[in-house]
Amino acid sequence: MDVPHELGAVYAVATFFVSKALLAEYGLSASQVLPGGPEGLADILLDETSAHGEGRFSTLGDYTLSAVEEEWCGKDFCCLPNQLSALPLLKAVKRYSELHRQILGRYAGLMPPRPTAASWERMSMSFSEFLATNGLETLTPQLDLLVTANGYGYLDDVPAFYGLLVATPELLSASIASQQDPQGAEPLFAMLLGGFDALWARMVEQAGLDVRTGHAVTRIERSEDGVTCSGTRADGSTFNLEGSHVYLACPFATIAPSLADLSPEEAAIFQKLKPSVLATTLFEMDPSPAYQNRIAWWPDRIRPLEPGERPKGQPSVLYAHRWNAKAVYWPQDDLGPPAGGNRFLDPGTERVATSDAAKRGEKQLRVGYQLAERGASQDDAALRAQLKAELVEQLAGQGIGGVQVLKQEAWDYSYRFSQKDLEAGLPWDILTMQGARRTFYLGASASFETLNDVTNYNLTLERHFFPDRDGTPLRHRGKSLCSLVCGYSDAGDV
Question: Does one domain contain both 127 and 264?
């Protein structure tokens, strides 16, 4: 029996307000569950560095507060009461929130207004430099998880603007609240029964949408009268579809060759968006007493504490691996895959052949995570081979035996502009292009990689360009799209 395994994203974050509103609208709010069961413990492991010795924690809260103690007391930090250690952390969150609003303003929706020259001067650096410049290093453990571990870039590489875009004051507050009151606060991370595909399937079903998969698009022609899209189906037959508009919801660079009349503006923007590569690898391993919780995470692997600890370029270090039996919440005493299937996974999840020992729960099935920096490519076969070799080598270094790699996926992930192109205003130029040439630009390339950002961006376009469902004109019709996506919170309805 082959077993289904999730190799992509599974979590909804506490501040995915737009996504959770959709879950409520489609009757799926009750489908959210805690990853790893009610406790959801982790193995957070520190390496021996100049800043600290080896260490182990089972919760993000304990690890975060230990970093505060380390900052106060040095490498051999003392154990202070959590209430006392939390004070500088809360102060840093308050300071960060004030800076966020000073620089980007108070805004609702996806993106802030285009920053002023003075604001860019305060952000013209990496996110880690921004934190150090403003005395906010205490927040680094939180941001290692919220930014880098989620695939959005290394703190010492990603521009400060993107870090601020991801780590909103609301997200940091939610992270702190979930640690201080794990039972009463909104969980920082949640899973959905059936995966996110349960939401998309419900939307398609209720709206009666005609969704066609297995269609390779080879040519898109746009004219004043409409749009023609042609290509090849999975069975080799050709198709030719006509419509009024085209919505580009894929990485823009991949579809550019198919656009028959690619404009200079489109070409300039598309070629400047560069992704990282997020690699996930499914492997078997012998059980180890050192790794008994839902995920093992090494913060020091994604945050260099000394020059040269994490070399620039590829391949990337293995910074975490997830034990599927606990992380995807299999309520099995023997930790083997349930015979009736896993209701916490998308029913269409790919099935992977595993050993008999793994099926019996005698071996652990885990997914390893690696992140190659911006500019890498999922199509680089040499990179994928290096990532796999590095994973095997580092697992051996962790004392793990019986390793057998079963499946590797690598995705172009978190498309971003360079600091120079951000300051040139390219994300806001995409907004001004919306609707021109009968084209709308959607997805992570137009906005940002998170599900919440993508759905927020798409809904904003809908409100601006199309009538309300009852057919009445939008009250926003007279406003520019940029003022909507970048609207200030006092607008009330942005």
Answer: no
